[in-house]
Predict the 3D structure of the following.
Amino acid sequence: MRLFAVIVTEDTEVPETQTLDGLDKARVKMERLEQAVEDSYRDIQQSLQAHPVLSWQAVFLAPEYYFSKQREVSDRFFSQNIKQWVLHRLVALGKKFPKFLIIPGTVLWTKKAYNTTKTVTPTGMDIEKHTVNAGRVAKAKTRIQNAAPFGTETKEKGWAYQNNSSFTSTPEKMLDKADLMETRIAQNVAYVCLGDQVIKYHKVGNYKEVHGEQGNIVFVPGNIVGRFSVGGVKYGLEICMDHALGVLESTINSPTDKVHIALIVSSYVSNKGSTNAAVTLHSSTMQQQMYIDNDTNNATTTGTAPVRFEGGGTGRLAMGLTHNPIKKANYTIWVIDLDDNKLGIANASTYKLGGTNLSSIGDKYFQ
């Protein structure tokens, strides 16, 4: 099987978006994404015309925080309404390119942990009343609790942040008092788009996700491993800290548990050497760089290599092409050949998502 890996490596706070906020920020980033997907898919089709193969798949990978509000001023999270706008556009993009697995980095967004009702007094005064959203709070607590077995400490500072101050409360207290504190629930989500299917993977690990954030806010992690398949090809997805914690690795108990293709989207995380996949694809905000380790005085790298091969020669860069990788201004395409027989890959040309416990987004986005 031939794999086309389109990898974006860029600082997600690109100059033309740094001063933008809200929908303006989301719109500009979406337009950049849509253009890169369209251009790279055209490049893939040209490669296939010049070098036909029996079966192929293509994946588009952008870095963590690709859709974030204003990270440099500790105002990282879009509102739920803007997240919904982003999802509608992602659904349309997936339908336009039904054979392209698109993972547009992550989307940072929040929702309220409380309900609001408004009434008007006989004298015409508006009265706003808050009540705890019991369903959301219960679900948030369960997800926080169930993330602990993956090695993420949910009691440490940084899971809940109060009023942009140095005081950090526990997530449970802030959720229980959501009505009084106007607590928001923070999400860091990678959406996986293929044709008319979209599933969502919530980041499990926490690395200062809400540290210094404005208002009262609680980071709620995921607790489901990012496994899925496209036809007979098995993928595993991790977001930054998840890879450092070994979230996917924790579910590798036998050779049949291994995935064919591991995916990492990160701000920065060192790519650990592993035999859990034939090839690992990594989209980071940081290009791989060489530096001198102060402790050992040895030259090493940042570990953000976009492509890493494992598994004893089951995958390699495709040979006989004029250019491999194909380097463009906004992305790089790596053309990779995987050994179907050694990896037990079948039905690679079946472009349907399956083999996952990850939930789908709501039907409302497809209407």
Notes: The chain is about 20% helix and 30% strand. The radius of gyration is 21 Å. The chain has a mean pLDDT of 88. The CA atoms of residues 75 and 358 lie 28 Å apart.
